[in-house]
Design a protein that fits this description.
Layout (H helix, E strand, L loop, with lengths): L11 H4 L25 E2 L5 E3 L2 E2 H8 L3 E5 H15 L3 E6 L6 H9 L3 E4 L2 H9 L7 E3 L6 H10 L3 E4 L2 H13 L4 E8 L3 E3 L2 E3 L10 E2 L4 H10 L4 E7 L3 E2 L5 H21 L5 E3 L17 H19 L5 E4 L3 H4 L3 E13 L3 E6 L8 H5 L6 E2 L8 E7 L8 E9 L7 E5 L20 E5 L2 E6 L4 H7 L3
Parallel strand pairs: 4-23, 5-6, 5-16, 6-7, 7-8, 8-9, 9-12, 9-13, 10-14, 13-15, 15-16, 18-20
Antiparallel strand pairs: 1-2, 2-3, 4-17, 10-11, 17-18, 17-22, 19-22, 20-21, 23-24
The structure holds ligand LLP.
Length: about 475
């Protein structure tokens, strides 16, 4: 797919392949439970409700655009992951998908650990009371200040990402008089995305230390030689929105091979491996994600098998799902502003948000679903493109979808599965005010991240 430059963003024709959308669902009023948060349903009047509250009330109280997050669904998914992996494994929620202090508290209550990848995420985690030993700190270029903060706080593990970082973390740990627990992130030569994985061109990326050419083995050698570091394991993360377990299989096999080499060379059996995140969710009815139990079983079978054949003790496994926990739990609610039918093409439906609250469509050509949620409709389906209010033609929220032909300004529409990487990647482009995140549970709604205000914008602009 071409990404040729254009003064106002990618040209539609480059980004949007024509005619790839499927036929409209038989009944546009039906909400596919695969893509909607668990407590979402329609009430007797046909309006969507979440946690027992109708969207019209939510829109009135909190405004649009806004993200509504189904707290009981979030908690249930945390429990499902923790139960699936059991007491002999660790689940680290990847905070980059979406992090707030309320989320940190839910994670603690549900027994999950947390992966952070910046000083800001670390601050949020610590401020909300996450015990430092349950935090893993990631990043390919952690600053000295960030490392110092993490070491001082006593984070459970720092994931080393480069040769420089080995000595940097060792030095900081020594000067604080501590022995820091670390993992080494390796690039296993697999890059997986959605339905496929590729085993070529993989070392050409900024993360981790390559297994190839003995580089990871050298990183292990150097780490083991440093007294202020305690090497607890090897980490690998292979990609995003993955459905096929084949990439994890290759990755686990290669990590276990490294563990065997380490045992042979140093007489040390590293006790842990972390297989990262990247498990896919349903954005549209066509996606078929796997359940946490299936994933846990597949991963632990692979690791056990590989360890048996290498005659290694099976290490403790950890995983870092972000999207798979928070993604499906939220939807973005928008109000329809203008509707422009383009004869023979499609109808452009403009909403009061856009690429500032969901950059994923423009950035990754991501697919989303959309539904009319303030009412039901028996009108014919019409092919729409849901676009935002930004000064950019690539400002697309949902490329191709069907909404009822009687859609009108003032209707509320919602895009499901926006819990991950939407608020966390939101921007102030065009001085948009980033929307709030509202947690809904058992008939109660509460703001967990408030809407930005124009005062917020002016406060940053020191004049
Ligand atoms: N662990 C590590 C080391 C990671 O780098 C990531 C994601 C995760 C875990 C969590 O992956 P998840 O389970 O959420 O897929 N902005 C992109 C995704 C970038 C993911 C980066 N790393 C998106 O919107 O699709």
């Amino acid at each position: 797919m071409s990404r040729s430059a254009h003064p106002a963003g990618p040209r539609h024709a480059d980004v949007m392949t024509e005619g790839h959308y499927s036929a409209p669902a038989a009944d546009l009023n039906v909400l596919d439970e695969k893509v909607w948060a668990r407590t979402v349903t329609r009430d007797a009047d046909g309006a969507l409700t979440v946690g027992g509250i109708a969207v019209a009330r939510l829109a009135e109280e909190f405004g649009t655009p806004a993200y509504f997050l189904d707290e009981s669904d979030f908690r249930a998914r945390c429990r499902a992951w923790a139960d699936a992996f059991g007491p002999d494994a660790d689940v680290f929620y990847a905070g980059k998908a979406f992090l707030s202090r309320a989320v940190v508290r839910w994670l603690q209550e549900e027994g999950l650990n947390l992966d952070v990848c910046s000083g800001g995420e670390l601050t949020t985690a610590l401020d909300a009371g996450m015990p430092a030993e349950r935090i893993a700190f990631h990043g390919n270029n952690k600053t000295v200040a960030e490392i110092e903060r993490a070491v001082e706080a006593g984070v459970g593990r720092i994931v080393l990402d480069s040769f420089q970082e080995i000595v940097r973390v060792a030095h900081i740990a020594r000067s604080h008089g501590v022995r820091q627990r670390v993992q080494i992130r390796v690039t296993v030569g697999v890059e997986a995305h959605t339905h496929e994985f590729i085993a070529t061109a993989h070392e050409d990326q900024k993360f981790g230390i390559a297994l190839a050419d003995g580089q990871a083995a050298e990183a292990v050698r150097r780490t083991l030689a440093l007294d202020s570091l305690e090497l607890i394991g090897i980490h690998s993360h292979i990609g995003s929105q993955i459905f096929d377990m084949a990439g994890f299989e290759v990755s686990a096999r290669r990590v276990v091979q490294l563990l065997a080499e380490v045992r042979d060379e140093h007489g040390v059996e590293l006790p842990e491996i972390d297989l990262g995140g990247g498990l896919g969710i349903a954005y549209t009815s066509e996606d078929d994600p796997r359940e946490p139990h299936d994933i846990a079983k597949a991963l632990s079978d692979i690791v056990t098998r590989e360890c048996e054949s290498a005659k290694l003790r099976t290490p403790r496994i950890s995983v870092e799902p972000g999207r798979a926990i928070v993604g499906p739990t939220a939807f973005t609610l928008y109000e329809v502003g203008t509707i422009k039918p383009l004869e023979g093409l499609r109808t452009y439906v403009s909403v009061d948000g856009g690429m500032s609250d969901n950059i994923r469509t423009a950035l990754y050509d991501a697919e989303y679903s959309v539904a009319l949620v303030s009412r039901t409709s028996e009108a014919e389906p019409m092919l729409v493109r849901v676009v935002g209010k930004h000064c950019e033609s690539g400002d697309i929220v949902v490329k191709d979808a069907f909404l009822p032909a009687d859609l009108a300004p003032g209707d509320l529409i919602a895009v499901p599965a926006t819990g991950a990487y939407c608020r966390s990647m939101a921007s102030n482009y065009n001085h948009a005010l980033r929307p709030p995140v509202v947690a809904v549970r058992d008939g109660e709604a509460r703001v967990i991240v408030r809407r930005e205000t124009e005062e917020d914008l002016l406060r940053l602009d020191v004049g």
